[in-house]
Design a protein that fits this description.
The protein has 212 residues and is an alpha+beta fold. Helices cover 25% and strands 28% of the residues. A 6-stranded antiparallel β-sheet has the order 1-2-3-10-5-8. Strands 4-9-6-7 form a 4-stranded antiparallel β-sheet, with no helix packed on it.
Length: 212
């Protein structure tokens, strides 16, 4: 319980600080990220339990990585992160999962994810902000990467990359469990103000789980 409360306090501080740096009011952040003002108020008070889709939309709108919202201050020059020390941010109906291992520092951060997809599972993601690039490196099994409706099989030992400002899906193949490492390369600097949109999903991810 104590760890969960501390995580919520860290998230609350990071969201509030990022919002202030961006010069956004609660109303404006909520409008752009498609999150209610009430939910944002609760989040900045370290209350509630925001889902991953909410975190992804907030990160996109604020021009930061998901890790930047979740993590405390960096410790030391070198970070070594064990997969079992990271809570999955997405879980599939058949046992698949996605874990955000870490995000690099610097003006153009990179998120590093570990995924496991069971046969038939899929994770659909709406377009991310312009400039986001993803790579997928399959280490075991095979998967189907779907980008803007086109299917691309990716097998163990292969790596795919694509501009992630189009709808995309990670789908487990029928041949068994697929393990992969996914990276999300974020553009430098804060996101430019987005043009108003009538599509609540026209922002990165519904769970980009993870971005994805």
């Amino acid at each position: 319980m104590a760890d969960a409360e501390e995580a919520l306090r860290t998230l609350a501080h990071n969201v509030r600080a990022a919002r202030n740096r961006a010069g956004l009011s609660l109303d404006e952040l909520g409008r752009r990220a498609k999150v209610s003002k009430g939910a944002l108020v609760g989040l900045e008070r370290a209350q509630g339990n925001p889902n991953f889709a909410t975190l992804v939309r907030l990160a996109d709108t604020l021009g930061v990585s998901v890790s930047a919202l979740l993590e405390g201050p960096a410790e030391g020059r070198v970070r070594v992160v064990a997969a079992d020390a990271v809570t999955p941010l997405w879980t599939g109906p058949r046992g698949g999962e996605a874990r955000l291992m870490l995000t690099t520092s610097g003006p153009a951060p990179v998120e590093v994810w570990r995924w496991r997809l069971e046969p038939g599972e899929e994770y659909p993601s709406h377009p991310h902000q312009a400039g986001v690039v993803e790579t997928v490196s399959v280490t075991a099994g095979r998967m189907t990467l779907v980008v803007d409706g086109a299917e691309h099989p990716v097998e163990a030992g292969q790596t795919a990359t694509f501009e992630a400002d189009a709808p995309h899906t990670y789908r487990g193949a029928d041949a068994g469990t697929c393990h992969l490492v996914m990276t999300v390369h974020l553009p430098p600097g804060p996101a430019a103000p987005a043009a108003p949109s009538n599509d609540p999903d026209a922002i990165r991810g519904s769970g980009g789980p993870p971005h994805g």
